[in-house]
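User: As part of a screening pipeline, I want to sanity-check one entry by hand. Below is the sequence and the SMILES for pyridoxal-5'-phosphate. Please return the complex as structure tokens so I can compare it with the automated output.
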Amino acid sequence: MQRSNPMAVNHPLLQPTASALGTPLPRVLRPQRAVPADAVRPTRAEVNLAALRHNLRVVKRLVGNVPVWTVLKADAYGHGSKAVARTLERAGADGVCVALLEEGIELRAAGIKVPILVMGGYYGNAWGELLRHDLTPVIYDVGQVVSIADEVRYSGGEAVRVHLKVDTGMARLGATPKEVPAVARALLDRPEVILDGLMTHFACADGTDAGSLAGQLDLFDGVTAEIQRLGLVPRIRHAANSAALVQSARARLDVVRPGLAIFGIEPRDGMAPELRPAMSVRTAIVAVREIEAGQAVGYGSTWTAARRSRIATIPMGYADGLSRALSNKGHVLVRGRRAPIAGAVSMDLTMIDVTDVQGAATGDEAVILGSQHGPLGEDTITASELARLLGTIPWEVLTDVSRRVPRFYREP
Ligand SMILES: *Cc1c(COP(=O)(O)O)cnc(C)c1O
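Assistant: Here is the complex for your manual check:
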């Protein structure tokens, strides 16, 4: 009798893939997000494309003629990078920044033509993929320069333009000022790699300490001068994220890199009130029940009715990005009114107390993030409000909306 070898895996997805030319394709199996056509339950994120265009205009007005490279990492902060990139490219975005190589490949495959800067600096050994998709790598060490030069020579292609990242105070990625001369020399020795951009990143741009920003910019100017002394002249320099481009004209340099502002959220309250949030998260009530005073709700019975209450159930839970930390803490809008979350948020479902929401019934819209106009009034739950409740930042609130939640794109 023949026994099958449990180690011999024959699943097609686990086989190495190869293009017709025999070159390995990127083995990047991107998890697919639910799409509107798949949507059965009413839970969804709505992305307002007009708001994205408006926010790009607001940023452009602020920075004058400085080119805007919109930051679309992490699937465009949870908004869906393909649709967002297409919208912003048509609206005049001058470039796009992503964190991962695979995020850049996804956008090229979607037909995006503007420069795409891969900021995360991690390429595995997929240098060929990087070059084939015309992506601009951010580099910060000698080994990366050597690898890219080798790849260019090996493939017989044209010289590659790179951006060198300098660490001026973030202590995250980037050549430290001490390491910069060695990287510069590696570049000077290798005409296959062209220093097109020089960049840095601020640690405290959304704070109120302007000194931190100025200190990093001084250091960046010093490193720029040093590189020029060595004989390299970067075409462009850039540093500003959303907060820095609002706060500091000096930080705008030759390109700005806004992420959060493009999605309509102020890095700090009052910084740019004309921005419009692009994403809202909505669902609908799927069940309503009356409970008696003293009766408990949800896992762990952490909420008990103080009076006869009406409890509504919505089909969204922590697996969708409605944080469990909002249990007995957050609110949801129903009929234009706030209904408190009652009990523990569970994986797929959450209960809300609609006792004071007159007429609340199955089928009523429930808004987790965003605005609602209803018969009882109108109200808005912002990403900043949720972030404060959760002890986090709006960036995380946006990226937490999970891939189970289909994104619907709206032209209002
Ligand atoms: C995420 C990121 C940005 C954009 O930051 P926002 O605060 O969202 O505008 C810019 N530059 C780098 C290097 C980043 O990682």
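Points to compare against the pipeline: Residues 71, 73, 119, 201, 241-243, 257-261, 267 surround pyridoxal-5'-phosphate (CB under 6 Å). Residues 1-21 have pLDDT under 50 and may be disordered.
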